[in-house]
Write a structure and sequence with these properties.
Layout (H helix, E strand, L loop, with lengths): L1 H17 L1 H4 L6 E7 L7 E7 H5 L7 E2 L6 H7 L9 E8 L6 E7 L19 H18 L6 E2 L9 H4 L9 H5 L5 E2 L4 E9 L6 E9 L5 E6 L6 H23 L2
């Protein structure tokens, strides 16, 4: 009987360790993507993973995040489509004193040049307010049992929802109230662009790239870093242009 009891306890312990709620935790600088709309029942939230290694902040090439985005879930949650007034935003950061930072989005006006922001950077945020904002993000992750790559569609009225803990948030604690910054931008067409900024306590926010959600087809989501370089084909054209220019200069000199 003693052996049976030990076996049972071991199985229960393993089950607890493997359960989503036990595994869920907010990893510093993981980014959360949230969608909300006035008048609908649920929010749609996606844990994109680490800003650098998963999303591509600081990289030289764009990142395709479409595999994390479920267009069927989006369309069933927001039956009117992206252009019906859906709001989109991304938040994340590090709450620890050492390395404290905050990621937040702002609506981008157009595709434009990846190295140049298409929006106004948020005003600086104090260290205490920044910590509180990241704490709200962590509470949301833990409350929903999210892990990188996971998603959830909680009711907007729930305590653990984007509407309650991030934006707009009717009562503290909420990200928008605690930081004084709202990460949301409202779509006006089937495509929306959101600039991503990173800030440290009391310092200006730095533009690091932008997200693109395109619902004109089957639905695609991607991130373009501010340091992105031209595609190989473009490099080829540039090289050809340089070679031709050099050739013509030499040809003209030789014909004189």
């Amino acid at each position: 009987m003693k052996r049976t009891l030990q076996t049972t306890l071991t199985v229960l312990g393993l089950a607890a360790l493997l359960s989503p709620s036990a595994q869920a935790q907010y990893n510093p600088n993981d980014l959360l993507l949230g969608f909300t709309q006035s008048g609908v029942q649920n929010d749609y939230i996606i844990d994109l993973g680490n800003a650098n290694t998963a999303v591509g902040v600081g990289g030289a090439n764009g990142t395709d995040l479409t595999s994390l985005f479920n267009s069927a879930t989006f369309n069933s949650t927001f039956s009117g489509g992206l252009s019906s007034g859906v709001n989109m935003g991304v938040v994340g950061g590090n709450q620890a004193t050492a390395g404290r930072d905050l990621y937040i989005t702002s609506l981008r006006s157009s595709l434009g040049n990846p190295s140049v922001p298409g929006s106004t950077a948020p005003a600086p945020v104090g260290s205490t307010f920044m910590s509180s904002g990241v704490g709200d993000v962590a509470t949301l992750v833990l409350g929903l049992g999210l892990t990188p790559g996971g998603s959830a569609t909680p009711p907007q009225v729930a305590a653990n929802s984007w509407s309650s803990l991030i934006s707009p948030g009717l009562n503290p604690p909420s990200f928008t109230i605690d930081t004084g910054r709202d990460p949301m931008g409202q779509a006006s067409s089937s495509v929306i662009y959101e600039d991503l900024y990173r800030g440290t306590p009391n310092q200006p926010f730095a533009y690091v790239g932008y997200f693109t959600l395109d619902m004109s087809g089957s639905g695609s989501l991607g991130f373009t870093p501010s340091l992105s370089v031209p595609e190989p084909s473009t490099f080829g054209l540039l090289i050809c242009g340089v070679v031709l220019a050099t050739f013509f200069r030499r040809f003209q000199r030789g014909s004189r």
